[in-house]
Amino acid sequence: MPASEGTVIVQQGRIAKAAPGDTAEPDPRQRILTIPNAISVARLAGVPVFLWLVLGVASQAADWWAVGLLIASGLSDWLDGRLARALNQQSSLGEVLDPAADRLYIVATVIALAVRSIIPWWLVGVLGARELLLGFVLLVLRRHGYPALRVSFAGKAATLCLLYAFPVLLLGSHASGYAETARVLGWAFVIWGSALYWCAAVLYTVQARHLVVADRRKNGAGSPAPWTRSTAAGAGSTAAGAGETGNRAGHSRQVGRHGEKANNAADGAGGRA
Questions:
Q1: Which domain holds residue 36?
Q2: How far apart are CA 96 and CA 29, in angstroms?
Q3: By CB neighbour count within 10 A (0-12 exposed, 13-18 middle, 19+ buried), where does 258 fall?
Q4: In total, how many domains does the chain have?
Q5: What's 202's domain CATH number?
């Protein structure tokens, strides 16, 4: 319905007065009910199922089902991004759900494999320290009004390597002929993925630092620093004092000239007398 004159429209935290005939159109990136978002929610729902298969059932058949679930999660990760671009359904919620699902699967897989003694706990610490670092970086960005950074190519490649590595290591724990090959291949993906994981973290940190420094410089340019204001005030006081001293000196010189003229006049009058 067209907005009448004087209607106030609130959008993205700002209040603006609508012109006659204008309508407030919703931002398409704020959509929630989209096909890619539904796929991301389904991926998130698979995390507890994966943990139940690996830690609850803990059999070779259950491990294969868990590996199949991870493969389906990886394929759906590719599919939801493809559909979002094809259907023009990119959304702010999708940008949060997609990396959240990736991280939850990695965390769940790492903890489950560590509990079953398939991987060492120090690897859990290496990957967990990276997540803590990025959490701190995100808090700093939020404090300065910036959203989360977009996932880089290095971050996507690292996630893909780790999502390949841990299912293969899970199969390598079986007493079978393919176990040795699976362990070698799985650890190769772990090394590559962990290195890329930390490279991506360093890139995110550098990008965040540039944004924060630029934000501080921008805010600092609007208002002078306290010491600048103090220096300016001192300079003004000094100039005012100098001006007052100059006025007094000028007044003294003027009085001196008037006194000299008076004395000359008195001398002339005495001479004539």
A1: 29-217
A2: 12
A3: exposed
A4: 1
A5: 1.20.120.1760
b (16+ CB within 10 A) / e for 124-163: beebeebeeebeebbeebeeeeeebbebbebbbbbbbbbb
**Whether the Cβ atoms of residue 186 and residue 119 lie closer than 8 Å to each other:** no
Identify whether 116 is part of a domain.
yes
Is residue 76 within 8 A of residue 42, CB to CB? The reply is yes
Report phi then psi at 27, rounded to 5.
Answer: -75, 125
Torsion angle in degrees (nearest 10) through CA of 101, 107, 109, 112 = -140
Residue range 169-212, pLDDT digits in tens = 999 999 888 899 999 999 999 999 999 999 999 999 999 899 88
pLDDT < 70 stretches in the chain: 1-25, 221-273
Residues in a beta bridge with 9: 16
Q: Which residues pair with 14 in a beta bridge?
A: 11
Residue 213, helix vs strand vs coil: helix
For residue 259, is it within any domain?
A: no
User: What tokens does 43 get?
Assistant: 């991926």
- Beta carbons of 108 and 47 less than 8 angstroms apart: yes
In a domain, 189, yes or no: yes
